[in-house]
Design brief:
This protein is mainly alpha-helical. The protein has seven helices and four strands; from the N terminus they run E-H-H-E-H-H-E-H-E-H-H. It has a two-stranded parallel ribbon with strand order 1-2.
Length: about 120
């Protein structure tokens, strides 16, 4: 579902560190190590326009990467980070949007069970 339309999905290092804090059994942590199209990347410097929004390191890194790559989308759920993305014309989609897109594309038959699973997993 996350990969639809993309050859790879990049995970900035600050996001990886946030996920890593959930422990080795976290499904996202396992996926980062097991799925070849998920690519861990370093962000050397946050875009100054994004940095001015004083977002978290993960959100800032995601937006910086999306702003620097033609055709890239930022996958962000944080409200303030989404506002920043809109202001800077960075395409953005949230987790719920990805689930609904997967439903529209026939990758999942029902969106509700996926959403419930995410909700019960702490999303």
């Amino acid at each position: 579902m996350l990969r639809e339309g993309a050859t790879e999905v990049v995970v900035p290092e600050p996001v990886f560190l946030e996920i890593q804090a959930h422990g080795p059994d976290d499904p996202t942590m396992k996926a980062i190590h097991e799925v070849e199209w998920l690519k861990l990347v370093s962000v050397s410097e946050v875009d100054p326009e994004i940095d001015a929004w004083d977002l978290g390191p993960g959100e800032s890194a995601v937006l910086t990467l999306a702003a620097s790559e033609q055709g890239a989308w930022a996958v962000i759920d944080d409200r303030e980070a989404r506002r920043c993305a809109r202001k800077l014309n960075i395409p953005v989609i949230g987790t719920l949007g990805l689930v609904l897109l997967a439903k529209q594309l026939g990758q999942v038959s029902l969106a509700r069970p996926v959403i419930e699973h995410l909700r019960f997993s702490g999303m």
